[in-house]
Structures are given as C-alpha cells and as structure tokens.
Amino acid sequence: MAKVARVGKREELAFADEARTWAGICLSEKLSRNGDFILAYRDLSGAPLEPKMLIDCKDKLSISEIDISKLVRDAQERQISVGVLVAKDESQLRQVDTDCRWDRKENVWILRTTRQWLPRDLDVLKPLFERMRIQGSDFLDKNVALADEVRRTFADLARIEAELKKASKAIICASGSLTKYRSRLQSLCNGTAQKIASQPEMDDLSLAKAGD
C-alpha cells in the first residue's frame, strides 16, 4: 500500500507541474481530501472561471468503477459539476472508459482522459464550459443532442488518433527498411568498386603472361 501511495503521489506532482504550464489554465494546490486538484480556465486577472473541474489523477494497472464512483462523490461533496479522471496512460483505461469518455452520473459530468489527451479535451469542451458559465451547469441537461455530439467527437478523435498511430508505425517501418536497403546497396557498390579497381592489375598480369 505504501508503494502504491508513493506512485500516486509522484503522478499527482507530475500532473501538477505539467498542468501549470498550460496557457489560460489555473490549478489549485493539492487538496487534502475529496479529489486531488481543482482545475479551471482563468480570466485576464488570473481568477478561476466556472465551471471548476475536480481532478483525480490515477496511475494504476486499470481504472475501476470504484474510481468513477469516488470521483462522483467527491465532486458532489465539493458541489462541483464536472469531474475529470486523469489516467497516466491510455492503457490504464478500460474499454468502457474509452467508449464513453464524456458522461453524466448522478448530476456530475465525468470526463475520462489521460495526461496526454487532457489539453486537447479541454479545447474541445471549452465552448460548452463557456455556455455553462452563462446559462448554468444544467445547460447540457437541456441540450441532450449537444452532449451526444461531444461523445461522438471524442470517439472520432480516438479513431483519428488510432489511424495516426498506424501511420506512425508504417513510417518507422519504412524508415528502418530504407536504412537496411541503403546499407545493402552501399555494400554492393563498395564491392563492385573494389572489383573494378583490381581489374587493371588483372589485365596487366594477363598481358605479361601473353608476352612470355
């Protein structure tokens, strides 16, 4: 348990260091209970804007439903309408997490994400947060179609990212093959050049023998 706590602590500190470099974002100090941090967009003066987001950082083999339930309870305790579960890596998310990354549970909107995805996810959600700030946290409740569109957007982004990963692997594979074939051709060229260079010596020897 102590080892797990140390891993969790390191992940929280690493997340905080990274999040504080994001433009237009403010992050609270580490919370003593009910979540890890409160994150929000900030105005020109640096003050946090609504809606505030309760952050729960996770670095474990797999996210569980207990983690989601705890985040919902913590958000309710703090009267925050948006909870964000941040896994260290995509592999730690379950299929159910990736299939429904934006969802509502017990009046709390939950975003399931990773440290790599979160800056992009916040950009996607920024227009919604602006409307929630103006019209209240129940803005999405009154616009079910919009909430569904957000879910489809995240699903589309996941498919695009998967295709990009395939393309990246293909490029790496092609680059490796290029290096291999270049080396082979270089060796063949060097071997041919050596044969050509030794050919005059062979011709001179043949002529000498013919003269004898």
In short:
With 212 residues, this protein is an alpha/beta fold.
CATH class wording of the largest domain = Alpha Beta
- Structural classification: alpha/beta
The poorly predicted ranges are none
Number of strands: 6
CATH topology of the largest domain: Trna Endonuclease, Chain: A, domain 1
Radius of gyration: 29 Å
Query: What would the principal axes of the Cα set say about the shape?
Result: elongated
Q: Which percent bin holds the helix content? A: 55-70%
Structure description:
The model has no long low-confidence stretch (mean pLDDT 82). This protein has a 6-stranded mixed β-sheet with strand order 1-2-3-4-6-5. The radius of gyration is 29 Å and the shape is elongated. The protein has 212 residues and is an alpha/beta fold. 58% of the residues lie in helices and 15% in strands. The chain has 2 domains: 2-142, Trna Endonuclease, Chain: A, domain 1 (3-Layer(aba) Sandwich), CATH 3.40.1350; 143-212. The N and C termini lie far apart (93 Å).
Write the layout of secondary structure elements.
Layout: H1 2-19, E1 25-27, E2 37-41, E3 53-58, H2 65-78, E4 82-87, H3 95-99, E5 102-105, E6 108-114, H4 118-135, H5 144-211
Parallel strand pairs: 3-4, 4-6
Antiparallel strand pairs: 1-2, 2-3, 5-6
Label this structure with key terms:
single chain; 212 residues; alpha/beta; Trna Endonuclease, Chain: A, domain 1; 2 domains; 6-stranded mixed beta sheet; 5 helices; 58% helix; elongated
